[in-house]
Structures are given as C-alpha cells and as structure tokens.
Amino acid sequence: MNPDMTGDMAATMLADLVLLMPELLLAGTAVVGLLLGSFLPRHRQWLVRALAAAATVVALVYTVVDWPDEAASVFSGTYAVDTATALARVAVLVSVLLVLAMATPRIAGHARETEFVVLLLLGALGAVMLAGANDLLLLAAAYLLASVPLYALVAFAKDSLSTEASLKYYLLGALLGTVMLFGVMILAGVGMGSDYVTLHHTVGMAPAAAAAVGVVALLAGLLFKAGAVPGHFWVPDVTEGTSPPVGAIVTTIPKIGAVVALYRLAAIPFAATDLDWSLLIAVLAAVTMTLGNLGAFFQTNVRRLLAYSTISQLGYLLMAVAVADRADLALSSLLLYVAAYSVTNLGAFAVVCALPQAHTLDDFRGLRRRRPWLAVSLAVCLLGLVGTPPTGVFAGKLTIFTATADAGLWWLLVVAAVNTVASVFYYLRWIVPAMRSGDDLPPPDRTSTRTAYVAAGVSIVVGLAAGPILAAVDGGLFRP
Prior knowledge:
- By secondary structure, this protein is mainly alpha-helical.
- It is 75% helix and 1% strand.
- It has one domain (12-472).
- The chain has 21 helices and two strands.
- Strand 1 and strand 2 (79-81) form a beta hairpin.
- The protein is globular.
- The mean pLDDT is 93.
C-alpha cells in the first residue's frame, strides 16, 4: 500500500477518534473502573465513583467547548457528529452526574459499588450511541448496549421485587429487540445497504409492503427503549420494583438516545419512502400521552406515578418526530424538550431518593413545614413536567406545539393541549399533601436533597436560556 495513503488513513482515523472523545471517555472509564474496582478494598470503591464523575465532567466540558459548527460523520458515515448528537451527549452526561449524586447514599460502601457505576456508564454510552447512529447495524449494537447493562441494574438489589422487574424488562426488551433486528434485516435487504445515506436513496424504490414491515418492526424496538406505546408495559412495574436511583436511570437516560434515534430515522431513511409514517408516529404520540395520563390519574405510589408521567412525556416528544420533515422547528424543539425533561424528571426522582421511607403521596404530607426548600424543588419539578413557565419543559413544549401547528397537525395539537391540562390533576395530587401540615418526616438524605435543589434550578435555567439553546442546536442534522 502506498505510504502516503496509509498516512492519510491513519490521520483520518485519528481525526474520527478525536470527534468521538466523549464516547471514548465513557467507554475507557468503564473499563478502567471495572479493573480498578477488582483490586480496591470495599471501603475504597468510592474511587471508582469519583473517577466516573471526573470523566463525565471532562466529557461534558469537551462536548460544550468542541460544539459542532456543522454536521459531520465519522467511520464512513456510520456515526453522525452533529448538534443532535452533541445535545444528547450533554443531556446524558448531566443525567449521569445527577444519578451518581442521588445514588451515593445507597451504593457508597456497597460490595458491588463498582458494578453499579460501570453498568451506569455503559448504559449511558449506549444511549449516546443510539442518538448518533447513522447506520442500522450500529443502531442495533447501540440498542443492545443501552439495554443489557440496565437489565442488570434493575436487579441490582437482588430482592424479589427487583428480580421480577428485571425479568419483565428483559423479556419485553428481548422480544421487541428481536423484532427490531428483523426490521433491520428487511430494510437493509430491500435498501441494498445499512447506512442511512444509502437508504435515503434506495428505500423509496423498494416494494412498499416490505418497506412498511421493516419500518414498523424497526420502530418497535426504539419505542420500547423510549417507553412509548406499544412498548410501554414495562415502565411502571420496573420503576416501582427497582430502587429509586435505577428508576430514575431507566426513565431518563435511554429515552434521550431513543427519541433522537427515532427522529434521525424519520428525517433521513423514512422520509424517502412513500409510507405515511408521519401519521403513524402522530397516532402513537396521541395514544402514548393519553394512556400515560390515564394511568397516572389515580396512582398513590409516587414511583408508579412518575413512571406513567414519563410515558405521557414521550407522547409530546413523539410529536416532534411526527413532523420531522414538515416543520423547521421540529429538531430544535425536540432537543430542547429532551434536555429539559431529563433534568426535571431526575429532580423529581431526587426528591424520592431523599426520602426513602416515603412511598405514597400521603407519606410526603408535611414536607413544606419540615423541609421547605425540598418541597419547593418538588413543586418546581412536578409543575415543570406539566409545562409551567419559566421551566425548560414549558419552553420545549411550546416550541413542539409550534412545530406541530406549522406542520398542520391541528388534531394532534388539540389532543396534546387537553392532555397537558389533564396532567395538572395528578401532579397536584402529590404537591398538595406536601404543602399541607402533617406528621414529622424522617430527616432526608443530604446528598439527594442537594441533587434535587440542583436539578430544580437547572430546570429553570434551561427555560430561561431556551433562546440560546435553540440557537445552539439549530445547526441541523447530518443529512445525505
């Protein structure tokens, strides 16, 4: 081989690796942490947690400093490095830091503390790869990486509830993951390639029936990962059965990657087909937000309430996917909502982690009198999930509604508005007891309490900085 050609290939590969620095930091820290934890005594396992936090901060700073000015791809176009990937990195990395903080009281000094941290990092890496995947084969690999570590995390407590939750999570994930692989096989076959650029030019010429089956099968796996209808059945049982920090993980981190992956598919390969996939996504969005709200209405267990809440939130996110090729604001509104939802949802879970003995809505009675700022944080996060100004979810929901109106899907906009108003009911069912007088509550965990304060504050900051965030993610998606 020509030495000059070899040098060019090496330089190109090195440049690709530099663009993937956040992903490499997550992967490398997981490997180093696992090796380090194998030799550290039990009382020194916190070093792995500290290493993970430090690497996450470095990756976060690198992502912000090296924000992509224009959309690009690496490794022959199989992985996109654009504003969608960058925002997903930020959301996932911030989520990892918040989860590490709220999980500290439960895992500090635990015999398997290192395993918890490593599984969290690997699951986060899978979520980021889902967001950046620009090839069906890489998408399938990212799906597995975003799933398998979380199956183990759900059963981390090794009790009957967590084991049952993990089994339900795994069985449904294996089923819909297999269906997804079937879809990958069909689309790669009829499209004569697996990368999105090739599919964009070829899948439109494929037999309509085969393309339709492939699209639906592919959607099945990603909708499961996102926790949307029809792959939503696991969400309440898993969230209730596992520990609150793990519940926060499975209802937040994988969803970030899944919704960005759905958008990327809708905007590139699906857009080239004659299928009315937009209507399919719009119907799924309406059903998801409606069933999520209906399931949350009369829940008394706070974790099940948050689980159904996160299902309904996915309905609003799918609205942006449904108008991916029909509205200019679709991508930026989706990314803003993803960032706002992730920190707001984690803030609500941080309050749950701060009071581990409180399981029902009534258990939070008297929170305002005993811990007023924790009660305020809870109110900010729950009202933020409704979409109350000036929180980030309000700004995200407003821009998604605007994009939906621009696309002419008025019926979907009406359904979303009705669901938004209806959701106030079950969030107030939690807020009102917390603001009333009640029995003395046990002292909350300080680390989780501070995490709730930070998350609530960041939720408001995201709302106030919505303009700059929308401008930062307006660079677009990597397209053919």
